[in-house]
Amino acid sequence: MRYFLFLIILFLFSCAKPNYIGPTELTRTGNPTMAACPFYFQEERLCLSYSWNQFPSEESLGSFTMKFYAEENPNTYISPKLSPSVKLWMPSMGHGSSPVIIKIVSEGIYEVTDVYFTMLGEWEIRFQLKNNDEVIEEKIQKITI
Questions:
Q1: Does 4 reside within a domain?
Q2: CATH number of the CATH domain containing 112
Q3: How far is it, in rounded angstroms, from Cα 64 to Cα 53?
Q4: What string of pLDDT tens digits covers the 145 residues of the chain?
Q5: Most Cβ neighbours (<10 Å): which of 36, 61, 107, 125?
Q6: Is 5 among the domain residues?
Q7: 3-state secondary structure of 82
Q8: Looking at the 3D structure of the chain, how many domains does it have?
């Protein structure tokens, strides 16, 4: 019984102070899909926007769609020459989450699945362009779970 009580207390105090933000609040506070060029990758002269298909929860993995395009023509999608990558990172704890899966949907459009934040707190979604394993350019979206 003491071990059970200890585990409950440990669990309650082991995470950062939660500040829940769901997809509605994220959109209201400046969802990157609303700006003309939310993330600009200088190396390829491409913009990136993303939108949630399924916001992650304790019960289900999340997914979102990334779209790359030229700033002057946001309706024509362009695949970058470098490889797109996404890393989920919790700066306050110095660790990431499990790797996401990125699939090409069509020219310049990618579906990112298996999005899972391992604990509550402040996270970063790190959008990266890579040459093999070397990160050439990175843009960061802060998010609080």
A1: no
A2: 2.60.40.10
A3: 5
A4: 554 444 344 344 444 444 444 444 443 333 444 468 999 999 999 999 999 999 998 889 999 999 999 999 999 999 999 999 999 999 999 999 999 999 999 999 999 999 999 899 999 999 999 999 999 999 999 999 8
A5: 125
A6: no
A7: coil
A8: 1
